Amino acid sequence: MSDTSLTFDPIRLPETCQALRREARSFLAEEIAKGTFDPNNPRRGDAADGREFAKRVAAKGWIGMTWPKQYGGRERSFLERYVLTEEFRIANAPTGVYFTADRQSGPTIIKYGSEKIKADILPRIVKGEIQFCIGMSEPGSGSDLFAAKTKATKTDGGYLINGTKIWTSNAHKSDYMIGLFRTSAPTKENRRHGLTSFLVPMKTKGISCNQIRQMSGQNEFNEVVFQDAFIPDDHVLGEIDGAWKQATTELAYERSGPERFLETYYVLTELVRAMGNNPDTRSAEGVGRLVAQLHTLRRMSVSVAGMLEAGKEPVVEASIVKDMGTLWEQALPSNVRTLAAFIEQEPGNQMPLKKQLAYATKVAPKLTIQGGTTEVLRGVIARGLGLR
Ligand SMILES: Cc1cc2nc3c(=O)[nH]c(=O)nc-3n(C[C@H](O)[C@H](O)[C@H](O)COP(=O)(O)OP(=O)(O)OC[C@H]3O[C@@H](n4cnc5c(N)ncnc54)[C@H](O)[C@@H]3O)c2cc1C
Question: Which atom of ligand 1 is nearest to the CA of 374?
Answer without folding.
Answer: 47
